[in-house]
Automatic annotation (TrEMBL):
<protein>
    <submittedName>
        <fullName>DUF72 domain-containing protein</fullName>
    </submittedName>
</protein>
<dbReference type="InterPro" id="IPR036520">
    <property type="entry name" value="UPF0759_sf"/>
</dbReference>
<dbReference type="Pfam" id="PF01904">
    <property type="entry name" value="DUF72"/>
</dbReference>
<feature type="region of interest" description="Disordered">
    <location>
        <begin position="257"/>
        <end position="277"/>
    </location>
</feature>
<dbReference type="InterPro" id="IPR002763">
    <property type="entry name" value="DUF72"/>
</dbReference>
<feature type="compositionally biased region" description="Pro residues">
    <location>
        <begin position="261"/>
        <end position="277"/>
    </location>
</feature>
Length: 277
């Protein structure tokens, strides 16, 4: 996401060499979703540049490759898991959680497969699971079944809150596209661990997006008071305003929990990339 085209020149200096782009993003936010790892395992030297561009407290929530979660459905994936973990090793503590996003075809009957997969993973990493089948959100027995499997290994359940997007019909091409691709499930606000992770999807309208996250502001503030360390990712259908919106959400939470550390100050970053002249 740190190379998202609508952010260039508006929020981030442009052009920048690849080894500087994440560093610029990290002046705005202190966490990032690693979505590219879903499509291909990154080269280790690429991951080393990610580590060099970020401080030790920066959080990567890295999606496991689809070869593991979607193609092989968590079965006989030992070699693929080892390859992925070797590649991301340079991140060290920056690997806040490894994100296991499961397809909508993953149903409650498959939970035991997930449980076995989680038990085989090394305990040196934290794991977080995202499910999309509606039964996990509408059937209490299915939800409890998944919660038990996750709790047994200290894994978190990542809610993807799309309720604001689906509240009213879409009004733009990007919203219509999101309607066809994003899961329509109930909002879930239960944390299983001390590191809850939330993915929130709003609308093109800033006002609607902000109105839709008000409940999350209170929930995240409560988690902080309980001593938890939540991570929240703010999205809109086109993500054009996601950076300032993420900072606005953080400020809303900080208004309730003043001891929360402020985000980095992007105004201190150079407006243009350095040159020789």
């Amino acid at each position: 996401m740190w190379t998202h085209a609508p952010w260039q020149k508006r929020f981030l200096p442009h052009p920048l060499p690849p080894q500087e782009r994440l560093k610029a993003y990290a002046t705005w936010c202190n966490a990032v979703e690693g979505n590219t790892t879903f499509y291909a395992v990154p080269a280790r030297d690429t991951v080393e540049t990610w580590a060099r561009q970020t401080g030790p407290d920066f959080r990567f929530v890295l999606k496991m490759p689809k070869a593991i979660t979607h193609d092989r459905r968590l079965g006989d994936v030992g070699a693929e898991v080892r390859s992925f973990l070797q590649a991301i090793e340079p991140l060290g503590p920056r690997a806040h959680a490894l994100w296991i996003q499961l397809p909508a075809a993953f149903v409650p009957a498959d939970v035991e497969v997930l449980a076995g997969f989680l038990r085989r993973l090394p305990p040196s990493y934290r794991y977080a699971v995202e499910v999309r089948h509606r039964a996990f959100f509408e059937d209490e027995r299915s939800a409890r079944l998944l919660e038990r499997a996750l709790a047994n290994v200290g894994a978190e359940w990542i809610p993807f809150d799309t309720t604001t997007l689906f509240r009213t019909p879409p009004t733009s091409d990007m919203e219509r596209d999101a309607w066809t691709r994003k899961p329509r499930v109930a909002r879930r606000t239960t944390a299983l661990t001390d590191r809850p992770i939330v993915r929130y999807l709003g609308r093109d309208s800033v006002d609607e997006t902000v109105a839709g996250w008000r409940g999350w502001v209170g929930q995240v503030a409560e988690w902080l008071r309980e001593g938890r360390s939540p991570t929240v990712f703010i999205h809109t259908p086109d993500n054009a305003e996601a950076l300032p919106l993420a900072r606005r959400f953080h400020n809303d939470v900080r208004a309730r929990v003043p001891e929360l550390e402020p985000l980095p100050d992007p105004t201190r970053a150079p407006a243009e990339p350095p040159t020789l002249f």
